[in-house]
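The methods section describes the discrete structure representation at length, but only in general terms. An entry of this sort, consisting of the sequence and the corresponding backbone structure tokens, reads as follows:
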Amino acid sequence: MKTGADKEFSSTPSSPGIEEPHRHEWTPETARPHKWRRKHPATAGRTGYSRIPPPAAKMEPHMKMKSIFGLKTAVFCAVSLVSATQGHADDKLQILTEDYAPMNFLRDGKIVGASTEQVELLLERAKIDYSLEMVPWARGYALTQNEKNNCLYSTAHTDERNAKFKWVEPLVVTSSVLIAKAGSDIHPLRVEDAWQYTVGTQRADVTYDLLVSFGFPKIDIAANFDMTLKKLLAGRIDLMVASDGFFRDAKENGADIEIAFVLSQQINSIACGKKVPDEVITKMQTALDSLIADGTQEQILKKYGMAIE
């Protein structure tokens, strides 16, 4: 029997007699003003709809212009910074040399020598930014002719090379000598007497041109003078040609050799590529002249057992 407090209400079979609170069913019609889209069946929830985010606020035309201008400014600054950095790198002088004692060689991983000390001092006095690298002679010779800011030392200044480079000189004057293994009894009195022998030298070196100009028919070429010296001591060649400085250094290091004949003398210099600006060459020459004038060059050469004349 129902009392007055009892009310008719619908109940679910699982919860008889308990009234559930009203639940709002979200549908496209009741969810306005938001837009909705039907969910994928695999992810559909209670209603099968999901809310579409409202569109982003539209940018006013003047705001678009400011944004574009800001982007262009940032890009311009970045490009300018890269260009300035690249320009600075391009202006640096690339100084190349070979392993050819006592003018330029490695000691404890550092490039040293009579020519090297002069080159470093003159570049410091001229306030020129540079890098220094030791490379095989043939490679350095080719790079100096073809690249923008390259210089190569110690380069013999010959008539054949004169027009190919811009010159800063003199670093040192050396003699090119024919070197024989000690006790070989090879002592030609004139160049023609030495034609019968096989003479070794280094690829692309001035001494090769010298042998050709003197008419030597049997020339053996190696990658460097150290290899040529090994061939001489092993009896694979009869003579080798190198500077008197190389001869002294090799002999001091125990090589059993002697001078057989003096071929010529040459000025050793800094050879710079034709693309190196003239004002840079002038600064370098002025700085070298100051080393000569104040006696610094002479002191350096004596330190290495060499002389300018």
Q: What stands out?
A: The chain has a mean pLDDT of 81. Helices lie at 61-91, 114-125, 137-146, 206-213, 225-233, 244-252, 278-293, 296-303. The CA atoms of residues 93 and 130 lie 4 Å apart.
